[in-house]
Amino acid sequence: MSPVFQGLLLVGDLVFLILIFVMVKNGRLSVRFSLPWLGLGAGMLVLAVWPEVAKILRSLVQVEVVSNMVFIMLFCFVLLVLLILCAVVSEYNERLKRLTQVNAMLEHRVRQLEEQLHRTDR
Amino acid sequence: MKVLVIIPCYNESENICRVVQRLKATCPDVDYLVVNDCSTDDSARILRENGYNYLDLPLNLGIGGGVQSGYLYATAHDYDITVQMDGDGQHDPQYLYDVIRPVAEGRLDMCIGSRFIKKEGFQTSFMRRVGIRFLSFMIRILTGQRVLDVTSGYRACGKRMTALFAQHYAQDYPEPEAIVTAICNGYKVGEVPVVMEERQGGVSSIRAFKSVYYMIKVSLALIIHRLSAIQKGGKG
């Protein structure tokens, strides 16, 4: 890895990590969802500072080129995040459904009480 | 015995008045609840102006979410039997007591009004019948029970089933899944013959292009339901 590329990786990764922290601080990203991205940033940082780690991993999984291994790892990470997001959306969908139903029942109750009140006023 | 008829309604402004009036005239001793699933037509105004008993969902939840709202309402108001009846006028209320009777007598926990026992009245299109037969076959394979009209929305449930459905009910195309849920939880499910009519106005929510999605989604859901029941040690 050339020193220029290594420097670019380091700077890019630090910007990425700072961006995550800023988004969490501004409330645009919850701590819960920032964790996988912070983990990714930390992993990238390790690889940028110690490129030998990638070479060791490559030899462990017997991949010819280091970059291929990094891309496979990233692809798997993104797939995992997408799967987790789908699960979270499903959970929120269920909660939204229940909230909508309870809201409709409360609105029905309010309407009934208003009608009762209206009849009593007459 | 308190009976609640749940009438899901999505863009049924052409039918809903006729459906409710017919129900009130035919079965005056049962309560009803129209669930307006955030219709984009005049349904909400019609329900309000006619003073009907209705729930007004602020978001469109689909047929399952809408019907489940009815089950929630039934549970909250302690109804003994809940009956689903479509808001498009396909279900004739003169068969309501036939559908309720097996549940009221304790012979069944869920009784489905089936158009395929006597094969009278509107029998739906050929392609839909093929799909229904396939789902019926799947339910027979998965649960061992023969149910002919698996997509019929004309069905009565007892108190325990109502409580179960108030908690767990599929959001879209829920009818076949509900049957598997009921059988796998050890409830007795059966059918009685009814005559259905063609929808009296408006358009069906299941269009041709949705059919493939429908079949895949429902088949997968049935298999998953069955596998979950086996894991929980449910009836097999």
Automatic annotation (TrEMBL), chain A:
Keywords, ordered alphabetically: Coiled coil, Membrane, Transmembrane, Transmembrane helix
A Pfam family assignment: DUF2304
Claim: Membrane is one of the keywords in the record: yes
InterPro entries, A to Z: DUF2304
Keyword Transmembrane helix: yes
Transmembrane segments: 6-24, 31-50, 70-89
Chain segments annotated as coiled-coil in the UniProt record: 89-116
Protein name: DUF2304 domain-containing protein
Organism the protein comes from: Allofournierella massiliensis
Taxonomic placement: Bacteria, Bacillati, Bacillota, Clostridia, Eubacteriales
UniProtKB/TrEMBL annotation, chain B:
Domain of life of the native organism: Bacteria
Annotated Glycosyltransferase 2-like domain residues: 5-154
Protein name: Glycosyltransferase 2-like domain-containing protein
Organism: Allofournierella massiliensis
